[in-house]
Amino acid sequence: MEPSYKTRKVIGRLLLLVMLGCLAGSFWSHHTSALIRNLAAHTDGPIRIAVFTQPAMLISYTPTTHKAHATIASKPCSSENRKTCFSEKYDVFFIPLTEDQTSFWVQFGDALEQWRFTPKSVWNYIRAYVNALVQKRTNIRPSEFLLLSKELIELTRTDFAIKYPVVAKKKKSSKAQDEKVQADSKPEVILPNTAGDEQPLVVEVLNASGKKGLALRVTQYLREQNTKGLLRIDVLQYDNYPSIQDQSFIVDYSGKQVQVSQTSQALGIRGEIRSETSTTAICDTRIVLGKDFKMPL
């Protein structure tokens, strides 16, 4: 039985009110949220999200480049000093249930890589946001959450560079640790090739896997990629790392995040890129090969 004319009229008016309400909400969100304006217009201005783990993190994301930097706070952040925890102001904040920064970052990186293959993680992601909103552990509005989620869909772990606070240099590794690292061969120094319009990324390759000759093989591979024009990269030197490392990682001193990300993807290093500043660094980027490293096919 078809609804009567009056029923259809009431339903039509209700739908119109809902549409007008959604439209008014969109306009209101656009004019009151700088984050939405930046995401909608894809401006060059960074969007800053404070994640209050221990220690806290400030994630700065640039919509035009689809790149993000995560800066680890150098001092503890309590509920009393959250607004002054970072030197820069943040747009929104999020307090995860996982307090440990390292654990949260690992979970976040795994989620970026696996959500396409495990649809259940999408539901967990939405549920975590709703719970945080209800429990007032975040001030991210639903409209902001939708736009941020749209940006996250296009990102991978290598689109994030992470900057740790400057700490005192660690003591030299013990003799027993040094003996674990097998020598590659005599370190070779290769002068950077500056030909071409785009300056190559100057790197050093360090073997922390304990596998003899690995740094040399990676150096040869990177030089081949440069010769073929697939990467603009020069290996300044290769050598051994002071100690064995389980995970491979990259330390960037240059801020050339696009080139560093391309190099990371070419080598299959899936960990985050550590961004550091150093006045004594002799290269743009340091590549440390851990036990997990496998030569690209």
Can you put this structure into words, describing what you see?
With 297 residues, the chain is an alpha/beta fold. Helices cover 36% and strands 17% of the residues. The protein contains eight helices and ten strands. The chain is elongated, with a radius of gyration of 24 Å. The N and C termini lie far apart (65 Å).
- Identify the strand order in the major beta sheet: 4-1-2-3-5-9-8-10-6-7
Low-confidence stretches: 185-197
Instruction: Indicate the percent of residues in helices.
Output: 25-40%
Q: How much of the sequence is in beta strands?
A: 15-25%
Gap from first CA to last CA? 65 Å
Shape: elongated
Order of helices and strands: HHEEEEHHHEHEHEEHEE
Gyration radius from CA atoms, angstroms: 24 Å
Number of strands: 10
Helix-strand category: alpha/beta
Task: Give the helix tally.
Answer: 8
Overall pLDDT score:
78
Q: Describe the sheet with the most strands.
A: 10 strands, mixed
List the helices and strands and how they pair.
Elements (H helix, E strand, L loop, with lengths): L4 H28 L1 H8 L5 E5 L5 E6 L4 E6 L19 E3 L6 H14 L5 H15 L7 H12 L6 E4 L11 H6 L20 E7 L6 H14 L5 E8 L8 E4 L4 H11 L5 E3 L9 E5 L8
Parallel strand pairs: 1-4, 3-5, 5-9, 6-7, 6-10, 8-9
Antiparallel strand pairs: 1-2, 2-3, 8-10
Helix pairs in contact: 2-5
